[in-house]
Specification:
single chain; 350 residues; alpha+beta; two-stranded antiparallel ribbon; 10 strands; elongated
Length: 350
């Protein structure tokens, strides 16, 4: 037998013995743990035999008792089904209860009570409904039991007469009691809602009622584990783009002016291109005509025409002479003698 084969056989035996020893140790530890558990005092707890949703009526077939360590019974749990159903009237579930989940007194109504929002409200809390739409209501993804922040958007008129819009975080970590008229926390299908009911203190309820008429309310869904508030600040239009509405209007006017100038320049370039295209076509036509004329043979030169002899006409010259007129024989002489005016007719001397 080869040495390698012998070594493999020895190793296999060692590992087999080791596996048996470890298995015995584990079994012994499990038996000791079970023995210690058997020594713990046990009791019973009522759990849901099937999933329950908001408004379901409790009955014996929907509940069952299971063993539970006596020192670890949850507060508000029932030990027997009879205790859970005791009282005059039926009890209803106030929230979703999973199968095998302990049925606690805080999750069901009292005997004879109905599953209403008033039974779900905490001590000193109020239920307030606000109007939302498919966008303001986080696209229908807000369900009963979620936590939301309430945002308030307002528009006010400044000292300069311009409208200024801003958003404030009105309330934080508000518990959603119902969407529309559904308060079932097991509902998980997104639906477009028209109203959301929140659990709020008296002062917060006053804020929500006043804010509903002062501006537009929106919801911001919070992380399930994020129940603490956070520091917030007002957000305005200048925080979005770093400019005021006047700056935006001025920049838009400048952009419109540039667009108009570019359109005018484009029209001028088009007119110039059209002129150049027209001249090019005219040159092409002239060139075509010249080419056609160059292909035509020239006609023979016509014989020179003989001009007729000019007609001889008699020229009559007219002579005009200027004749000096004969001066008059007498002349009139005017004479002033002091203030007296006298006229004399005397013969002209030659």
């Amino acid at each position: 037998m080869r040495a390698n084969t012998l070594i493999m056989i020895v190793l296999a035996g060692v590992f087999g013995v080791l596996a048996v020893v470890l298995a015995n140790i584990w079994l012994a530890s499990q038996r000791s743990a079970m023995a210690r558990t058997d020594g713990v005092q046990r009791d019973t707890v009522v759990v849901a035999a099937m999933p329950l949703k908001f408004g379901d009526t409790l009955s014996a077939d929907k509940l069952r008792e299971i063993p539970w360590p006596a020192g670890a019974i949850p507060a508000g749990a029932f030990k027997t089904t009879k205790d859970a159903l005791a009282g005059n009237g039926a009890r209803q579930a106030l929230q979703a209860i999973s199968a095998n989940e302990p049925v606690l007194a805080t999750k069901i109504t009292g005997a004879g009570q109905r599953a209403t929002l008033s039974a779900v409200l905490g001590e000193g809390m109020k239920a307030v409904s606000i109007r939302v739409n498919d966008v303001l209501g986080v696209a229908g993804f807000v369900f009963p039991g979620d936590r939301v922040d309430v945002l308030l958007t307002r528009t006010t008129r400044g000292d300069d007469g311009a409208d200024k819009s801003f958003v404030d975080v009105l309330l934080q970590s508000m518990k959603v009691l119902a969407v529309d008229q559904v308060a079932d926390e097991s509902k998980d299908n997104p639906t477009v809602v028209k109203s959301v009911t929140l659990e709020a203190s008296t002062k917060d309820a006053q804020k929500l009622t006043l804010a509903a008429g002062a501006g537009q309310l929106s919801l911001a869904l919070r992380q399930a584990a994020a129940s603490k508030g956070e520091t917030t600040e007002r957000v305005t239009l200048s925080d979005l783009i770093g400019e005021t509405p006047a700056d935006v209007a001025a920049r838009q006017a400048e952009l419109d002016k540039q667009a108009a100038a570019e359109a005018a320049a484009a029209a001028e370039r088009k007119r110039a291109d059209d002129k150049i295209a027209g001249l090019t076509q005219a040159v092409d036509r002239v060139g075509s005509q010249i080419d056609q004329l160059s292909k035509v043979k020239p006609a023979p030169a016509p014989a020179p025409a003989v001009a007729p002899a000019p007609e001889v006409r008699e020229v009559v010259k007219e002579v005009v002479r200027y004749v000096q007129p004969e001066p008059p024989a007498r002349a009139t002489v005017n004479v002033y003698r002091g203030v007296k005016f006298e006229t004399y007719d005397v013969p002209r001397q030659k």
